[in-house]
Design goal:
homodimer; alpha+beta; 4-stranded antiparallel sheet; 3-stranded antiparallel sheet; 10 strands; globular; DNA-binding
Chain lengths: 241, 241
Amino acid sequence: VLNPLIQKLERFVPLSEADKLALTNATANTKTVNAHIDLIREGDRPSAVRVIMEGFAYRYKLLPNGGRQIVAYIVPGDICNAHVFILKRMDHAIATLSPCKIAELSGRDVLRITSEHPTITQALWWSTLVDEAVSREWITNIGRRSATVRIAHLLCEIYVRLSTVGLVENGKFELPITQIELADTVSITNIHANRVLNTLRRLNLIAMRGKYVKIIDLDALKVMADFSAHYLHLNGLLFTE
Amino acid sequence: VLNPLIQKLERFVPLSEADKLALTNATANTKTVNAHIDLIREGDRPSAVRVIMEGFAYRYKLLPNGGRQIVAYIVPGDICNAHVFILKRMDHAIATLSPCKIAELSGRDVLRITSEHPTITQALWWSTLVDEAVSREWITNIGRRSATVRIAHLLCEIYVRLSTVGLVENGKFELPITQIELADTVSITNIHANRVLNTLRRLNLIAMRGKYVKIIDLDALKVMADFSAHYLHLNGLLFTE
DNA sequence: CGTAACGTTGAGCACGGTCAAGGTCCGTGG
DNA sequence: CCACGGACCTTGACCGTGCTCAACGTTACG
């Protein structure tokens, strides 16, 4: 299994062998965390940079009325809190969706890598900026599209992001989220999420059972979702379109 | 009138005289752009970094059905496209709301400043990360709050952000947006935006006429908006709370 | 002083929320 | 191996926030 962080960063720029070695070493030690555990809570002052090497997690915010908004998914290769040295406190929480293997880089590690490997530094910048672009797309998705289209769009995005780290096979991938979590992502109720999924299934666009999603007709799903991968800034390596 | 970029960055970290001088020089030459002009379009490959020194602009995305989602406001001191050297193409457009004075920094300028002034580099990082945090809050705002609360929250945010660059006086500030633009920001129709504004006026929370907004009861507005300025990461300089 | 953009108001409707009930799956312990 | 229980999924009936369509009022500006 390839290192997902390396796989992801190479979507932006090819890394030298020295770059890859540095990243491999820095992420060699992982700790395992169970599913449904808070990795970081809102208001925390994290001290290490965490990278998800295996498993899924999500960023979320809680509201006083008990509501929850999931504001991002974190998939293998993604960095939880690149900003450790800049922002003092977390403005959101992060929790695992499935059991995760997590690498922790100390401040020292990060400083050494970024000072000795300018290409990696650039690639980390790229990663941060892509995260921001994804947030903007989510605003648009939640703000302007119907529930059905929102979910279709989200599935397209996850499909593409997992593809870049080699986690899709024959249109099928693991996605360990419940309908409740899906609903909290696209800002609908779980009941409506259920009905929407049934619609997408009846249209023969997707199959979804337990933790697994299969995209049956990606082209049709993209069309109905108004999806274009531009905002993921993959540099044309994967999806030319 | 103080340089808004310096004012803003000093919310994060104090700048030396040399830092300030560099920023002052870099932003000394401005060009004026009329209201309602696209500064950058989706798909463009911008070559210079633009900073808004005076006036208001916004980031937006267009949808195939003719809809528009405004995904961010750009106020004096904000940077339009800090990512010029990383991302190749714009995934959204930027347009002016009012006549703007805009400073353009060439790649050479930016490289020189960031290499010679590490404090500024840090502050630019901070600025990028705050933009991302704002996006996450907008997702939450649009996804989980009622139309009335959304607008109240947006007004609180703009109030705070304009405060940091000295553009609020006695709770009153310029905000040159139409109800249509407000609606496209919080993802409702302009008709409903109109009704919501009337509600907020009737509750004696705000006064809004033409391009000017006055927050009559900030504390009450914050409470109804579920607003906390934490996500703006102002480092406790302005709003301790 | 005309006209176009913006703001306001009303009536009816629909997407998605709420409430309620039952079904299915799966891990745990007897 | 089965019985229990809890989390998740599914379905139905009803309801409400906010959308649509339409008309009219107001403001700003050439």
